[in-house]
Amino acid sequence: MTNTQGLIVKAQSGFFWVNTGEDIIVCQLRGKLKQGRAQGDIAAIGDKVDITILDDGSGTVDSVHERNQLIARLDPRPGGVYQQVLLANPDQALFVFACANPTPRLRMLDRFLVIAEKQNIPAVIVANKTDTVENPQAIFGMYESIGYRVIYTSAKTGTGLDTLRSQLQNKLNAFAGPSGVGKSSLLNALQPGLGLAVNEISSAMKKGRHTTVTRQLFAIDGGGYVADTPGWKSLGLWDTEPEEIDAYFPELRGLVENCQFSDCTHQHEPGCAVLTALKEGKIFPERYESFVRLRSGKE
Predict the structure, then answer these.
(1) What DSSP line would sit under 103-164, residue for residue?
(2) Cα 11–5–164 angle (5° rounding)?
(3) How far apart are CA 40 and CA 84, in angstroms?
(4) CA distance 17 to 285
(5) Closest CA to 90 of 48, 129, 50, 152
(6) Residue 21 in contact with residue 48, Cβ under 8 Å?
(7) How far apart, in whole angstroms, are the C-alpha atoms of residue 104 and residue 128?
(8) Does pLDDT of 203 surpass 70?
């Protein structure tokens, strides 16, 4: 028997594929980790773990290292609410939206960004299909002015692929975005076969909660991993109070301390610094509308 550390790169039906740097060992959780009722996934892809390699080549997960961040959702079950970990320890989340075909749903993007801010996960916006519009910056430029990195790409023309490849290198990357925006085409352009493999897993995950689900990290040539993480629209805001939302809008959180009232909703109160900034054109109306809708629970 040998003791070593590794990274969980695949999980399915209680089995975990652990990359030790030299080999991939198929492991199961040691019994002591499963004692008591778990309130969430004990181990998940992206977790760093200590394992024992047995004489037959299989292994056991002995302990799971503390997670820095995670992407999780709540799964209501008969025994209570369970925290389902989609990805542990992501270095960043890349949100892929098309410039056109389909029309970019910026309110959805705003929600994704709020969830990333809440989870303390650095977010990068990938504005894809730049070949379909004359001025992509007219759509996504406001996010750059707020402070988000926007990478403009086209799998068709090759625009931005080197920049995107560099952004992914040596990181654990969560990939997300609505259907039809070209995630698979982008990944295939970066590394042949990568997008096809990711899409195959993603399609299986979308078939329903009772389907046997495989979660997997896909290695990137040169270092790093990509994980498809569908379902961001239903993630992350289940334990968020309305008065928290302004903290997850970078352009708002520095203003709220200047509001006249500590419980300001930033919608109608006198002496509101946010409304003043909106009136003076210092806040994008579209972003403010997203804030109001999220605060009211409409979206």
Answers:
(1) PP-HHHHHHHHHHHHHHT--EEEEEE-GGGSS-THHHHHHHHHHT-EEEE--TTT-TTHHHH
(2) 65
(3) 6
(4) 47
(5) 48
(6) no
(7) 10
(8) no
Query: For residues 50 and 2, what is the distance between their CA atoms, to the nearest angstrom?
Result: 11
Entry pTM? 0.92
Alpha-carbon gap, residue 166 to 239, rounded angstroms: 34
Side chain identity at residue 77, one-letter code: R
Q: Which two tokens stand for residue 37?
A: 């009722």
Per-residue pLDDT band at 211 (split at 50, 70, 90): very low
> Would the pLDDT of 209 be above 60?
no
Greatest alpha-carbon span in the chain: 72
Q: What rounded mean pLDDT belongs to the chain?
A: 91
Stronger pLDDT, 285 or 119, i.e. the higher one: 285
Q: Please, which pLDDT band fits residue 148 given cuts at 50, 70 and 90?
A: very high
Q: With contact defined as beta carbons under 8 Å apart, do 201 and 228 qualify?
A: yes
Q: Torsion-angle region of residue 182: left (phi > 0), alpha (psi -120 to 50) or beta?
A: left
